[in-house]
Amino acid sequence: MIPLLTLALYFALSVYFLYKAMNRSIWGVGYYLLNFFGQPQYWGWGQVLPGGMRWSLFSALIMLGSVYLNGQETEFREDRGIKRTSMFALLLAINGLIVQYAFSINFEKSWPIYVEMAKFVILYFVMQKAVQSRQDFILLNWFFLCGLFYWGFEARILGNLTMQQGRLENFGGPGCAKSNELANIVVSLLPVFVGLIAFVKWKEKFIAAGTILLGINLMMLTQSRGGFVGLMVSGMTIPLVASGRARKRALQGVALGILAFIVLAGNPEIMARFMRTFTSDTSTREAKRDTTSSESRKFFWEVGLTMIEQTPFGTGGDTFDSKRARRIMQSRGAFHYNNSVHQGYINEALDWGVQGLLIHLGLVFSAIWCAFKTMRFRKKIGDVAAAFYGPCLIGGFAAWLVGCLVGDFFYLEWGFWLVILAVCYTRIFGQENYGVLADTKVTQEQADDGDQDLLRELAVDGA
């Protein structure tokens, strides 16, 4: 009965989003994200539908068509930070195309990897184009939150789980059905939801808080040590980056997060794996398995670095899954091979060259800098809520970047989501476009606590 209800809900939401997308682009984004978090082929309730349907492609075309149909609603001023970030996005696609045609050692195998990256670059431009107002920005955050709420509900309430060696597997969406990828997307989005709480009303705060709890529970089920560390790093980053009253809120949020972690960590196996992250104990079978996994990763990293030295300009997508990698492993006495280097930055340099890695890092850190500047601006003019969102978003970046140290997540979609959120946050709340949207101007009460000289300067500029 529940699968039928879920299927009916999926189609009802699809019809609603498609109808709304005809008049407002952000709902096209909502339909796209519905088909990421609730893509039928990943769930039992969707097995009754015809196989082989291109859900992601169809929803992406709907999103693109919605943006084209509705056009530009608000005339935003040019922001140099956003322009720089967009330049890096274009360079990422151009560099990949050059590597694909000039240096690829297996064109047919590499091409789908390049196409996926190019799609994410297009997604960057299309999704941010759909955000034309403060309400659109809040809706975009809600779409992510509702998606993770659904995953958490399936895991915690419905119990639709596939556990392998005590870890949650085959659960999630495109690119994140495995435990480590699932943990990384969860810990990357959780800090963003903490920031969203500052924007919404009290009833909505409880929904967001409940989703955060479900997300923490979901992350624990993956037993991903990279996820644990990423969550800790984001928890330290948010109060470190925040200042003033935003820092006070950040510390309160971190305290509640720690409390939630302790309450939810009732599974002894989960806590044991978490503690093994910080020890070198090999007295148990599980500890020996974790140690072997860590040593294997170091070996694969060394092989990957050797390959980068040999071909620093990259050799196309899936470079590590090649005969050359296997020959190097064999020459170093490997007993088994692996098709993944388990390190996002090494993987990026292997595929698209050291220059490709630098361009991608430029994209990410340019977006982070945009968010940081916007956060500082909102703090100066007394807008604590918008100022608090910035550190939380940067905390999401921190969790994702740390996770990429131990997994091939750097090229995956949710990293681009964070960049999109940073750019939209800057366009809606940044100094360059202050006053373009009436509902992003500070109230008189907020202005009383703000930098009066800056507010007078903004008034003179016509904001």
Q: What's this, in brief?
A:
The chain has 463 residues and is mostly helical.
How would you explain this protein's 3D organization?
It is built from 18 helices and two strands. With 463 residues, it is mainly alpha-helical. The chain has a two-stranded antiparallel sheet. Helix 7 runs parallel beside helix 9, helix 7 packs antiparallel against helix 15 and helix 14 (344-380) runs antiparallel to helix 15. The radius of gyration is 22 Å and the shape is globular. The termini are far apart.
List keywords for this structure.
two-stranded antiparallel ribbon; 2 strands; single chain; mainly alpha; 18 helices; globular; 463 residues
Describe the secondary structure blueprint for this structure.
Layout: H1 2-21, H2 25-37, H3 55-70, H4 80-102, H5 107-130, H6 134-158, E1 163-164, E2 167-168, H7 179-197, H8 202-222, H9 225-241, H10 245-264, H11 268-276, H12 285-310, H13 323-331, H14 344-380, H15 384-403, H16 413-429, H17 444-448, H18 452-460
Antiparallel strand pairs: 1-2
Helix pairs in contact: 1-2, 2-3, 2-6, 3-5, 4-5, 4-14, 5-16, 6-7, 6-8, 6-16, 7-8, 7-9, 7-15, 8-10, 9-10, 9-15, 10-15, 12-13, 12-14, 14-15, 14-16, 15-16
Biggest sheet, strands in spatial order?
1-2
The run of helices and strands is HHHHHHEEHHHHHHHHHHHH
- Unreliable stretches, pLDDT < 50, 5 or more residues? none
The overall pLDDT, averaged over residues, is 88
Q: What overall form do the CA principal axes indicate?
A: globular
List the quaternary state of the chains. Answer: single chain
Q: From the helix content, strand content and strand pairing, which structural class follows?
A: mainly alpha
The proportion of strand residues reads under 5%
- State the major sheet: 2 strands, antiparallel
Terminal Cα separation, in Å? 55 Å
- What's the total count of β strands? 2
The share of residues in helices is: over 70%
Q: Roughly how many Å is the radius of gyration?
A: 22 Å
Put simply, the count of helices is: 18
